[in-house]
Design goal:
The structure is a single chain. With 173 residues, this protein is α+β, with helices and mostly antiparallel strands. The chain is built from 4 helices and 6 strands; from the N terminus they run E-E-H-E-E-H-H-H-E-E. The strands form 3 sheets. The chain has a two-stranded antiparallel sheet. Strands 3-4 form a two-stranded antiparallel sheet. A two-stranded antiparallel sheet has the order 5-6. Strand 5 and strand 6 form a beta hairpin. It is elongated.
């Protein structure tokens, strides 16, 4: 190797750390003899920690992407209707079963208020109920297997059994 041939006279390395776990080691070699530089070594140790945090962040982002892909695959292929709304009750996601259930295409539902899928007489109660929940955390009804009427695109009202969940992402609910 080059080091064995006598051409390298200086070397240093520093660990890439995530907490106490060593993810790898960065090694540097020089043809010149150099004295240790404590400031440089301290700076490189800090950089090693930052590289480790960056690697962990990338790993977490990849895991989140895989999780989202799995969720979308399950939701899209499910025979049950899936809808996702934001805290203003705007529809963000619908699966193919929702299209079949309500008669609207995904493009017609996404970006609209969830109330479009409710009978007229229930619409005035929905947004105040959502606001009350977001403000107090109090649920005005059960969130599991509740019978509720839905409204098809053609105006027909039909029975639904709904379950509701709440989650946060990127500061949104």
């Amino acid at each position: 190797t080059v080091a064995a041939s006598g051409e390298l006279h200086g070397a240093f390395g520093f660990p890439i750390l995530l907490g106490n776990e060593v993810l790898g080691v960065m090694e540097f070699f020089s043809c010149e003899i150099r004295q240790p530089d404590a400031t440089l070594l301290q700076m490189l140790a800090s950089i090693g920690g930052q590289i480790g945090q960056g690697a962990e962040r990338r790993r977490a982002q990849e895991m989140m992407k895989q999780s989202e892909t799995l969720y979308r695959t399950i939701a899209e292929t499910a025979s049950d209707t899936f809808l996702t709304i934001d805290q203003t009750s705007t529809i963000l996601f619908v699966n193919q079963a929702a299209e079949r259930t309500f008669g609207y295409s995904a493009d017609e539902m996404i970006g609209q208020k969830l109330t479009m899928l409710m009978p007229e007489e229930l619409r005035p109660m929905h947004l105040p109920g959502v606001e009350r929940y977001l403000t107090t955390g109090g649920r005005g009804m059960s969130w599991h297997a509740v019978e509720f009427p839905g409204r098809h695109k053609n105006g027909r009202v039909f029975p639904l059994e709904i379950s509701i969940g709440d989650f946060g992402q990127d500061g949104q609910r």
